[in-house]
Write a structure and sequence with these properties.
The complex is a heterodimer of chains A (139) and B (402).
Chain A lengths: L6 H18 L15 H25 L3 H25 L9 H37 L1
Helix pairs in contact in A: 1-2, 1-4, 2-3, 3-4
Chain B lengths: L4 H8 L1 H39 L3 E5 L3 H10 L7 E2 L1 H7 L4 E11 L11 E5 L7 H8 L15 E4 L9 E4 L2 E8 L10 E5 H13 L13 E2 L1 E6 L5 H11 L3 E5 H44 L1 H9 L4 H33 L1 H7 L9 H16 L1 H7 L2 H6 L2 H6 L2
Parallel strand pairs in B: 4-8, 5-7
Antiparallel strand pairs in B: 1-10, 1-11, 2-9, 3-4, 3-10, 5-8, 6-7
Helix pairs in contact in B: 1-10, 2-8, 2-10, 2-12, 8-13, 10-11, 10-12, 10-13
The chains are: A mainly alpha (139), B alpha+beta (402).
C-alpha cells in the first residue's frame, strides 16, 4: 500500500529546523554584556534550542512511524512543546525588559509565531490521527 | 438543500477551494499588511509633527544630523554651545519665544537596559515638553516641576522603569510619570528640569563622563527651540539667526517633517506597487481558475438546469460559491498580515529611520474589515467574467457531448 505523504511530519520538521536556525541567524538574542556575562535572554535561547532539538527528533519519529495513534501522540507532544516555547519567552525565563532590545523586538515575536504554528498543526494532527485511530479500532 | 449547495460544492472540491483561497489570501495579506504599515508610519509622522512643537531648533554647528537622530530615531548624543547664545536667539527679530534644552546620555545601566537620552528643559520658558506632559498626565498640570527633592524625572514610554525609579550615573531617580508612546525618539528619553540636570552633571563627572573639550557644562546648553512670531517667515528668521550668530546650525521642524514625508512617500509607493502587482497576479490567476472550473463543470451546470434550477438562481449560487471560496482566504490572509505587523511593531520601529506608531484598535478593525471585504469580492468579480458562458450554454447540447 502506497504510503500517504506525511504533511504534518514535514511541517513539524520544518518548524523545528526554522526555530533552531533562526535562533542563530534570523532572530538571535542579545549578545553578552561588556563584562562577558550573559543576560536572561541568552539562557532562554539555550532552552529554546533544546526544545527545538526535541521537536526535530519528534518530527523524525512522526515521519518514520506508521501507527496512527502514535502519530497522534507525537503531534500532541509537539503541541505541548509549542506551549512550552511561549512560556519560556514570557514567564518561565523571560527576556530583557526593555521593548527596544533585540530579543524582545525580534526573537520573542518570532518564537511566538513559530510556536503558534506548531501548536495549530499539533492540535490538528493529534485530533485527526487519534480520531482516525479510534474509528479503525471500532471497525 | 438548494441553499446549502454552494457550501457543499466548496467542501467537495478542496483543491479548487484551496487554490482560490490561496490567491485571495495572498491579496489580502499584501493589502492589509501594506495598509497597516503605511498607517503606522503616518501615525508616527503625525505624532512627530505634533510633538516637535518648535518652528526652529538652534544647535551647535555640525549637530543637525545628531539632533534629528535624537528627536526622531531615539539615538543618544550630546553637543553643547555657550548659554549666551540663548539671549542672542531670544532677541532675534521674529522670535516669539525660545526655550533652551540640555542633552546628556546615561551610562549603560544594569542588566537589560540601554543608554537613555536625558533632556533637561527649563519649565519657565518651555513650550514643547510641558504641554506634552500636561496632555499625558493632567494631575501634573499644577506641579510640572519636580518637588524639592530634585531627583524626580519624567520618562518616555520605552524607558525601563524599575519599581518607580531608574538609575542614572549610579543614583536612583524617582520617575514622576511615564509618558505614552509617541512613535518618536522622545520615547527613549527622560526629561528633567535644569536643577536636576545640574545634579546629573555632577554625578556624570563623578563617573568620569568626558564632556567635549572647552565645554563648561553648567554654562552650556545643547539646543534652543524657537517659536516664530506671527507674520514672520520661518526661512527669514532662520537666515537672520544664522547671519547674526556664529557657530550655530538651524534646523526647521517643517524641514524635518518634510524629509520624513519623503521617506514615507517612498515606502508608500513601494508598498502600493507591491499591492498592485499582487492584485494583478492574483486576479489573473483567479480568472484562469474560474474559467477552468466553469469548463470542467459544464455538465454539472447542465444537469442542475435540467433538474429545474432557473438560470438566475444558478448564477447566484455560482457567485455565492466564489464568495465563500474567496472569504476562506481573505480572512486568514488579513489576520496573518495584521498579526505580523502588530507583533513585529517594535522590530520595525528600531530598524527604520522613520517614526513609527502602531495602528490603534479601531484603525486595525477598519483595515481588517476593509481588506477582507475587498479581497472577498475579487473572487466573484473574477467569476463574473465567465457567467455568460453558464448562461449561454444549452444543457441538452452539453449533455449530448461525449
Amino acid at each position: 500500500m502506497k504510503k500517504k505523504l506525511d504533511i504534518e511530519g514535514i511541517v513539524f520538521l520544518a518548524v523545528a529546523v526554522f526555530l533552531i536556525t533562526g535562533l542563530f541567524v534570523l532572530f538571535p538574542v542579545c549578545g553578552p554584556k561588556d563584562d562577558g556575562s550573559f543576560m536572561r535572554c541568552h539562557w532562554a535561547s539555550r532552552a529554546l534550542l533544546g526544545s527545538g532539538i526535541i521537536s526535530a527528533a519528534l518530527s523524525v519519529v512522526h515521519l518514520v512511524i506508521n501507527d496512527v495513534k502514535a502519530k497522534g501522540a507525537v503531534a500532541l507532544a509537539q503541541t505541548f512543546l509549542g506551549i512550552y516555547n511561549i512560556a519560556l519567552v514570557t514567564f518561565l525565563i523571560g527576556l530583557c525588559k526593555m521593548e527596544t532590545m533585540q530579543c524582545v523586538a525580534v526573537t520573542k515575536p518570532s518564537v511566538v509565531v513559530i510556536s503558534i504554528v506548531l501548536i495549530a498543526v499539533g492540535i490538528f494532527g493529534a485530533v485527526r490521527n487519534l480520531k482516525s485511530g479510534k474509528v479503525s479500532d471500532e471497525k | 438543500m438548494k441553499n446549502k449547495l454552494p457550501l457543499i460544492n466548496v467542501i467537495r472540491n478542496p483543491f479548487r477551494t484551496a487554490c482560490v483561497a490561496a490567491m485571495t489570501a495572498l491579496l489580502s495579506f499584501s493589502l492589509s499588511g501594506g495598509s497597516a504599515l503605511v498607517k503606522s508610519f503616518q501615525n508616527g509622522l503625525e505624532s512627530t509633527s505634533n510633538r516637535l512643537g518648535a518652528d526652529l531648533i538652534v544647535i551647535p554647528e555640525g549637530s543637525d544630523k545628531s539632533v534629528q537622530d535624537i528627536l526622531l530615531q531615539g539615538a543618544t548624543g550630546y553637543f553643547y554651545m555657550d548659554s549666551s547664545v540663548y539671549d542672542l536667539v531670544s532677541h532675534t527679530e521674529g522670535v516669539e519665544s525660545a526655550t533652551a534644552q540640555f542633552y546628556l546620555t546615561s551610562l549603560n545601566a544594569s542588566c537589560c537596559s540601554v543608554k537613555v537620552e536625558i533632556i533637561g528643559y527649563d519649565p519657565g520658558s518651555d513650550f514643547v515638553v510641558s504641554p506634552w506632559i500636561q496632555s499625558q498626565f493632567l494631575e501634573l498640570k499644577d506641579n510640572i516641576t519636580p518637588n524639592d527633592d530634585s531627583r524626580e524625572i519624567i520618562a518616555g514610554s520605552n524607558v525601563l522603569v524599575d519599581s518607580g525609579s531608574i538609575e542614572l550615573y549610579g543614583h536612583r531617580f524617582n520617575v514622576k510619570a511615564q509618558l505614552s508612546e509617541t512613535g518618536t525618539g522622545l520615547d527613549n528619553a527622560v526629561f528633567a528640569d535644569m536643577e536636576t540636570i545640574n545634579k546629573l552633571m555632577d554625578y556624570a563627572l563623578e563617573k568620569s563622563f568626558v564632556f567635549p573639550d572647552e565645554t563648561k557644562p553648567k554654562e552650556s546648553i545643547s539646543a534652543i527651540l524657537v517659536k516664530i512670531s506671527e507674520g514672520y517667515e520661518t526661512d527669514d528668521v532662520e537666515k537672520r539667526i544664522r547671519k547674526s550668530i556664529d557657530g550655530v546650525d538651524v534646523v526647521s521642524s517643517a524641514g524635518m517633517i518634510s524629509n520624513i514625508s519623503d521617506g514615507l512617500s517612498l515606502i508608500s509607493s513601494m508598498l502600493m506597487f507591491i499591492c498592485i502587482a499582487f492584485f494583478v497576479i492574483s486576479f489573473a490567476v483567479l480568472v484562469i481558475l474560474f474559467g477552468l472550473s466553469v469548463t470542467e463543470r459544464e455538465k454539472e451546470f447542465a444537469v442542475v438546469r435540467m433538474l429545474g434550477l432557473i438560470p438566475g438562481r444558478q448564477k447566484r449560487q455560482y457567485f455565492t460559491e466564489a464568495f465563500i471560496q474567496s472569504l476562506l482566504g481573505s480572512i486568514p490572509g488579513a489576520v496573518l498580515a495584521l498579526t505580523l505587523v502588530l507583533v513585529y511593531g517594535n522590530a520595525i520601529k528600531i530598524n527604520t529611520d522613520i517614526p513609527y506608531m502602531t495602528v490603534s484598535g479601531p484603525e486595525l478593525l477598519i483595515i481588517f474589515l476593509g481588506t477582507a471585504i475587498i479581497t472577498a469580492i475579487t473572487g466573484p468579480v473574477a467569476a463574473a467574467l465567465w457567467i455568460g458562458r453558464i448562461d449561454r450554454a444549452d444543457p441538452a447540447v452539453i449533455l449530448r457531448r461525449d
